[in-house]
Write a structure and sequence with these properties.
Elements: H1 2-9, H2 13-22, H3 24-39, H4 45-54
Length: 77
């Protein structure tokens, strides 16, 4: 995980995040590795979701909005 990696190399999480400005491609590659490890860790989906949001692995800043324009009554229910 990100925090464990940062601890093992002796940097803070904020220092790791600051690398995104200087090395954007390498930073995204590192996040992809952390995301893959989280998904394959066996942790629950809700825990993985919280982890990925905490470390910006998804790059989502807000919730997605889903809209359904299908009218079930016009489809001949």
């Amino acid at each position: 995980n990100v925090a464990g990696f940062c601890r093992s190399v002796g940097i803070s999480v904020s220092a790791f995040r600051s690398l995104a400005r200087r090395f954007p491609d390498d930073y995204l590659t590192a996040l992809a590795f952390f995301e893959d490890a989280a998904i394959n860790s066996g942790a629950t989906a809700s825990l993985i979701s919280l982890y990925l949001k905490e470390y910006d692995c998804w790059g989502q800043t807000e919730e997605d909005e889903v809209t359904c324009d299908h009218d079930i009554f016009s489809a001949g229910a």
